Amino acid sequence: MFILNTNADYRRPLEPADAAILGLDAAAGVERHLSFRDQHAETPLVSLPALAAETGVAAIHLKDEGQRLGLGSFKALGGAYAVIRLVLEEAEARLGRPVDMPELYSPDIRKIAGTMTFACATDGNHGRSVAQGAELVGARAAIFVHAGVSDERVAAIARFGAAMIRVAGSYDDSVKEAARVADERNWTIVSDTSWPGYERIPGLVMQGYTALVREALRQMPAPPTHVFIQSGVGGIAAAVAGHLAIMLGERRPVFAVVDPARAACLFETARAGRPVTVPHGEPTVMAMLECYEPSLVAWRILSRVADAFMTVGEEDAVAVMRRLANPLGTDPAVVAGESGGVGLAGFLKAVADPEVKAALSIGAESRILLVNTEGATDPGKYQEIVGLSPCEVVR
Fold this sequence. Notes:
This is Diaminopropionate ammonia-lyase. It comes from Sinorhizobium americanum. One of its GO terms (molecular function) is diaminopropionate ammonia-lyase activity. InterPro entries: DiNH2opropionate_NH3_lyase, TrpB-like_PALP, TrpB-like_PALP_sf. This protein is α/β, with parallel strands linked by helices. The chain contains 17 helices and 11 strands. It folds into 2 domains: about 1-75 and about 210-395, Rossmann fold; about 80-190, Rossmann fold (3-Layer(aba) Sandwich), CATH 3.40.50. It has a 7-stranded mixed β-sheet with strand order 1-10-9-8-11-3-2, sandwiched between helices. Helix 10 links the parallel strand 8 (about 225-230) and strand 9. The longest helix has 20 residues, at about 200-220. It is globular, with a radius of gyration of 20 Å. It starts with a strand and ends with a helix.
């Protein structure tokens, strides 16, 4: 399914609070924050010239977040960043003086962090980031996971010392339970989705994602003309689209949001012109995108700066994992998890449909930017789908 953005807010300026969260000064602050983080390095921008030639465009670049901060997904930029920011803010309030990143591991800051507990719900990757951030500063983490989260993903979060809490039902059920328990126990909820009255912390999570946009623009020979980004609740899509709109203004690229057909909350929200909760159905293989209710902040941004919304099916996600593992010509192999290559799946569907291709003005001069949002965060599942282990693909 495919629709253009026809909402009343389309192409209106971002609200001042959203523009501040995703603006140039905030993004520069994120990069400064990252300079103090162990394991920080810019992730690679992979060029796929053979695929570009096959699809009739000038260039395809894939920002590969499968190596980000040792966690294997772009989420490493969000949850941990928000946790660290919140600890520094709490330290400033208690100590009565400015506190910055160089003091993060000092005894005074760690003592304060040790009194704090951070909670979130997760499909896997966001919870891993929150747990890593809490461990870095000496805080506690409580991570809520729904029934569909694999034991392998749970173990990957637990290794950071987080308390793991299983919740019956879906991701959205785990979000509600995490918020309820956190309120009861005076924990700080660090969610990557927002709801009425809860926007600032999800905004900080999204702010962390701006780092990958700045890196990609530095790495590309020329700015993209088109961007296809997969979306769950909308955080990554809104962060990328919003920051690009601020940075590039009228030169910003055409931006398409890609949903799983089985969890198309943003697509249906765009079609209705208001936030929509879609009914739960059969689970999607795109586990990190299996969300049925959009983030209010993300929708507010995307309603203004996204140009189109589309869905892809189960077979599309699987096919693109295999395509990236077994690339055309001399294109490099890329390890993309079940949700990692969904933006590419959306692009491939778009160029295969003459009407969609024309609606998005894709042509021989188009430069496509995509994000591999996760590597093989569940290696067993990856090998089952692709037929090769992540190590075999890299070799």
